[in-house]
């Protein structure tokens, strides 16, 4: 049970630390991962909101949390990077579908960034598939329900 909560917290950190870093640092270190390039369809590969600052802050937050909880620094780093990779995959798919970076895509906005790191946890920590599914669903539902609240509090720029 405790490991499920710790993994859930790590998913929140991987996705929340970039938002916090953007608030703290403004435009500093905000180079986009895609370098501002366009894909064959004329749309951005990922968009301006996927930055190197976000990748570093999300991965380091997971790494630090995993170190403090004893899960392991390397696990935390890889877990965080996979969560961010899932977010990047979602952004790539949304751009190909013609959706703006702020557009809502329920499921696509949550599942890849939770599922990829949880597959790592399944193998690395020997979790059961049920635990993986529960954490992914919990993250997805909490993200959908809490994003509007964080928007109203001024933490998020979009209500989703």
Automatic annotation (TrEMBL):
Origin: domain of life: Bacteria
Transmembrane segments: 55-84, 130-151
Key words, A-Z: Membrane, Transmembrane, Transmembrane helix
InterPro entries (alphabetical): CarS
Keyword Transmembrane helix tagged: yes
Keyword flag Membrane: yes
Protein's UniProt name: CDP-diglyceride synthetase
Organism whose genome encodes this protein: Marinobacter algicola DG893
């Amino acid at each position: 049970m405790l490991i499920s909560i710790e993994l859930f917290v790590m998913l929140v950190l991987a996705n929340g630390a970039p938002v916090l870093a953007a608030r703290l640092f403004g435009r500093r270190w905000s180079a986009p991962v895609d370098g501002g390039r366009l894909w064959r369809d004329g749309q951005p590969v990922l968009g301006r909101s996927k930055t190197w600052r976000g990748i570093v802050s999300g991965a380091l937050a997971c790494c630090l949390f995993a170190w403090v909880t004893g899960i392991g620094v390397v696990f935390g780093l890889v877990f965080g990077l996979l969560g961010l990779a899932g977010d990047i995959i979602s952004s790539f798919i949304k751009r190909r579908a013609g959706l703006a970076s702020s557009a809502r895509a329920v499921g696509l906005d949550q599942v890849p960034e939770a599922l990829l790191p949880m597959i790592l946890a399944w193998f690395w920590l020997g979790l059961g598939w049920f635990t993986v599914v529960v954490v992914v669903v919990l993250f997805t539902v909490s993200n959908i329900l809490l994003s509007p609240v964080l928007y109203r509090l001024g933490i998020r720029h979009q209500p989703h």
